Amino acid sequence: MAKKGLLLVISGPSGVGKGTVCAGLLAKHPEISASLSSTTRSKRKGEVEGVHYNFITERVFQESIENAEFLEWAKVYNNYYGTRKQVVDEKISLGRDVLLEIDTVGAKHVKTHVPEAILIFIMPPNKGELARRLRGRATDSEEVIEKRLSCFEAELKEIGYYDYVVFNHNVQEAVKQVETIIQAEKSRVSYLYDDIAAMF
Amino acid sequence: MAKKGLLLVISGPSGVGKGTVCAGLLAKHPEISASLSSTTRSKRKGEVEGVHYNFITERVFQESIENAEFLEWAKVYNNYYGTRKQVVDEKISLGRDVLLEIDTVGAKHVKTHVPEAILIFIMPPNKGELARRLRGRATDSEEVIEKRLSCFEAELKEIGYYDYVVFNHNVQEAVKQVETIIQAEKSRVSYLYDDIAAMF
């Protein structure tokens, strides 16, 4: 049996820069597979179908929920987001590490159903900086931004679901810290157990 | 309240080079405190009282056992080894990371009594290499070496007590991997929880 890959879940509040951290990690590590999420939200400028998301209709999404095809799904700010179980399972069984970039609701779902998933919370240096980044992104109304900021308070209360916290002072440092976590996880007895049993 | 330090336990079979890995780690990280073990065994060439061990008599050791002064103690190959609880607790409360280099019997004791201790098993590249290192050390009779090698089999069966495994192909790489583990542990939610609560 091939060694299973790691299921890495990178999450955190809206605007913290988790997408940028994931992109930085994937650029340095082509051996890590990004899992493609499905969503019903509309495409943002520059986003490409099949690369950034599977953009699907609410009807298709609902059918997939009914058929239990999602590892996690959530309705966030009136849009649905989900990760198809099959895609993730296949890659992990083949020994590939899979990276999920999902919101905190989805991350909690994954940890509940896949306890061996490694949950990393990307943390803003402080709350003011998070507000600054959300406003700088200029994709949301002030009302939505306020909603996202108050969500952050609630998200922090659930940080106990996570394994690790990485402060995103700057992207390079945050990516390095995620790399460190992956390297350490690959030294875990649970990860190496079969190799050791086979060697000795 | 000051942030508590980590309790790092480096263990593994006799002859694997755990002492060298610890020395390498401490040389690069003067901020890590080496815990001084007490032992009743006789000094080896080059060993210094108060630096490598507290060399004490069996009578003093027995008294300390009776007074429950040890975090762990064990009789290995007719000698006693132990770590005084007070010394470790004091340093950790002051926020210092403490490194224990102990045999596998002691490591299991520590994990049982201090579940948050981080147990690292230093692994030889293979069994033949372990035998070669034990013979190269030339401190033990062939009979003792055989005894140590058969112990290794038993030690492997208890690897489930450990958090991490580090293969000691060469010292620099092994030290680097321990550093990676320490860095990752310092990103754990459990380690950062109080900081995050204070910040937000």
Give an overview of the whole structure.
2 copies of one chain form a homodimer. By secondary structure, chain A is α/β, with parallel strands linked by helices. Chain A has one domain: P-loop containing nucleotide triphosphate hydrolases (Rossmann fold, 3-Layer(aba) Sandwich). Helices cover 46% and strands 20% of the residues of chain A. Chain A contains 8 helices and 9 strands. Chain A has helices at residues 18-28, 58-66, 85-93, 104-113, 127-137, 142-157, 171-185, 189-199; strands at residues 7-11, 33-34, 37-39, 53-55, 70-76, 79-84, 98-101, 118-123, 164-167. Chain A has a 5-stranded parallel β-sheet with strand order 2-7-1-8-9. A 4-stranded mixed β-sheet of chain A has the order 4-3-6-5. The first copy, chain A, is globular. The A-B interface holds A 121, 123, 126-127, 153, 156, 159-160, 162-166, 177, 180-181, 183-185, 187-189, 192-193, 196, 199-200 and B 121, 123, 126-127, 153, 156, 159-160, 162-166, 177, 180-181, 183-185, 187-189, 192-193, 196, 199-200.
**Oligomer kind:** homodimer
Structural class of chain A: alpha/beta
Overall mean pLDDT of chain A stands at 92
Q: Remind me, CATH topology of chain A?
A: Rossmann fold
How many strands, which pairing sense, and closed or not: the largest β-sheet of chain A?
5 strands, parallel
CATH superfamily of chain A: P-loop containing nucleotide triphosphate hydrolases
Poorly predicted runs of chain A are none
Quickly name the level 1 CATH class of chain A.
Alpha Beta
**Count of discrete structural domains of chain A:** 1
SSE topology string of chain A? EHEEEHEEHEHEHHEHH
How many E strands of chain A? Answer: 9
* General form of chain A: globular
Annotated CATH architecture of chain A:
3-Layer(aba) Sandwich
Number of helices of chain A: 8
Major sheet of chain A: order of its strands? 2-7-1-8-9
| Largest interface (CB < 8 Å) | A-B, 27 and 27 residues
**Termini distance of chain A?**
17 Å
